[in-house]
Amino acid sequence: MNALPAGPAFGPSARRATVAVTIGEGSSAVTVGGGAPVVVQSMTNTDTADVEATARQIAALARAGSELVRLTVDRDEAAAAVPRIRDRLAAMDVSVPLIGDFHYIGHKLLSDHPACAEALDKYRINPGNVGFKNKRDLQFAQIVEIAIRNRKTVRIGANWGSLDQELLTHLMDENAASAASLDTRAVTREAMVRSALLSAERAEAIGLPRSRIILSAKVSAVQDLITVYRILARRCDYALHLGLTEAGIGSKGIVASSAALGVLLQEGIGDTIRISLTPEPGGDRTQEVRVARELLQTMGFRIFVPQVAACPGCGRTTSTVFQELARDIEAHLSASMPEWRARYPGVERLNVAVMGCIVNGPGESKHADIGISLPGTGETPAAPVFVDGVKTVTLRGPRIAEEFKALVEAYVARRFGGVEQATE
Q1: Is the pLDDT of residue 195 over 90?
Q2: CB of 261 within 8 A of CB of 244?
Q3: In what helix (H) or strand (E) does residue 230 lie, and over which residues does it extend?
Q4: Quick one: pLDDT at residue 418?
Q5: pLDDT tens-digit profile of 40-67?
Q6: How many angstroms separate the CA atoms of 140 and 104, rounded?
Q7: Residue 123: burial class (beta carbons within 10 Å; 0-12, 13-18, 19+)
Q8: Phi-psi region of 225 (alpha: psi -120 to 50; beta: other; left: phi over 0)
């Protein structure tokens, strides 16, 4: 494989300038691109025709922090269900922009089900299967015209697994006749980029504003994804959606997606992301949302929840107390956030440390807003607590966990809400 070109040295606060795209209306509207924070997206895996199951899953994804949710619209029953899903979500007090995922017959479904076309906030179409041969341009135009009439955004998403074969064949033939031919993967990457850009040009020519177009070019290999998006970012200023398609299951999918998206985000490429994880049988679909948020927060692009720093443990920390406390504190912060976010503006910036021994414990605890250093193997059974870098108290005995949680609660109320709120 050829060496990748070096990327520009952007810091975490730098964003590539893009056209701003607004998805949805009113208080639920989300801005993508144009310097807005990177947006988290997810997708349902229910049968869209099952209104109740799909609405429940969308609600769970939205409550986990997904700011956009995509659902499959693959047949008449699914298209007919979309307005009912929107209404069911409203009854559940869930407000999140909905994206319809269309392949092969999107033009027909949107035409035959105008209520679906109106209920969705964005349409996702694939230039590789929107239509074939002489029908492709006609069916593509039909979807774009419906989007224009309904004032909807369109994501034009090229995909490695369903690439426009006519375009790919043309580029392969052109490459074969060239004196400086490229390898097959390089030509395929070029086809991905051109497919997205040519389709965007067609959409604009039909009348879809640039401010209602998002592009993506998804592949399943990390290095190919990085290369494709670097090329795409150099050639356009459209808002870009990032995602490693078919990333895989469990830690493999998490690591692969984080590796690819982390590089691109650090270079200022990408305005909305999805972590496409294959769930375990019966697994929690919201995991992909949590991973996406953790990636953005870890890299410093967004702040969603308080950070808990905890040491990995070693022979000095044979006690499981610090592990249990770190787990409990993280769970407590997560459970408290819905209420805290309303009462204590800025609380998501809270930094907590739960450390397991004397080596790094006091130092890390001093660097946090509030931290505790638990005793390691052979150490004095005492746990000093540091608040804003100053040791304030030493906890002892069997109720260290409960006492530390109470100290965290008091700190949050004092720092982010004021003493008055803390004593209400």
Answers
A1: yes
A2: yes
A3: helix 222-235
A4: 66
A5: 999 999 999 999 999 999 999 999 999 9
A6: 10
A7: buried
A8: alpha
| Phi, psi (rounded to 5 degrees) for 393 | -160, 155
CA distances from 318 to 166, 353, 375, 379, 396 (A): 62, 18, 10, 11, 18
pLDDT category of residue 29 using cuts at 50, 70 and 90: very high
Question: What contacts 241, CB < 8 A, 6 or more positions away?
Answer: 32, 41, 155, 157, 214, 215, 216, 270, 271, 272, 273, 274
403: how many CB neighbours lie within 10 A of its CB?
A: 16
Six token digits for residue 148: 């224009």
Contacts of 328 (CB under 8 A, 6+ apart): 401, 405
Measured between alpha carbons, how far is 147 from 120 in angstroms, rounded to an integer? 10
| Cα–Cα dist 308/371, whole Å | 9
* Type of residue found at 368: A
Which residues, 6+ apart, have CB-to-CB distance to 189 below 8 Å? Answer: 219, 224, 227, 228, 231
In the structure, what pLDDT confidence band is assigned to residue 8 with cuts at 50, 70 and 90?
very low
For residue 7, what pLDDT is reported?
A: 38
**What is the length of the chain?**
424
Angular region, 250: left φ>0, alpha ψ -120 to 50, beta rest:
left
263: three-class secondary structure by DSSP: helix
Q: Are 121 and 90 in contact (CB under 8 A)?
A: no
| Type of residue numbered 378 | G
Assessment of whether the complete model's pTM goes beyond 0.85: yes
